[in-house]
User: What shape does this take?
Amino acid sequence: MKYFLILISVLLSDIIMGQSVTTTSRPIWWDSPLIEGRCSAVRFVKVKDNSSEKVREKAVKMVFGNGLSDTSGEISIQGSRIVWRNGDEIKNARVIAEHTEETTLGEVTLGMLVQVPKYNNALFEEVRITDRYPFSPRVFVPGMEQIYKGSVTKGVLFIAGETATGIGIAVFECLRYSKKSELRNTHDLARRRKYLNEADRMRTWRNGFIAGAVVIYLWNIIDGCVAKGEERVWIKKCKMGIRPHGTGSGAELTFGLNF
Assistant: This one.
């Protein structure tokens, strides 16, 4: 019981204090893999150069470099929007975030998180960098949601807590059953009284571990639902939307439906 109480204390202190996350000067999305949405994709672009102006120009060209057969068109930046024009052909992209690093030798590295459409006139899904996670059935499996959110220590503690209480329930239920068996096999009053008291004690311990298992499990569900996790790039699934679209000869409305 002493070790069980120590485990519960450590678990609760970790939940209350939260898991410390090591931070660096680089953002969480640096070197992030390609994230696919239904209408668009979010990818990371990294460029090095000796000039801050040239490095941005290279990064912007790289955004469309893999998706265009001809990169000789005009590229312009309008706020967070990047537009490529070549005659009547227009392609758009959106800069979600960017980060610049400069070495002592004067070399500049620009990292850019960019959202690009999968096809012409595609809708841009909502994208954000967040530490919030939607509800998932993983919360009903002890520790799984915490590990998924990046709080590995907390998740392992939840798993260890449920395992320890489960073992405690099984051990003390076996001991209680053993004392009940010895009680049925003797007619000595002193021994019967002793076995009965010991069986009651084992039942109390078993019930204590059951209560502990319930508390840890409920805490696991609550923590899995409300606790923040590691920051991540999140892209919303686009189902239906209407957006304005400009062409060289006029303007139009684009309707997108995904199912």
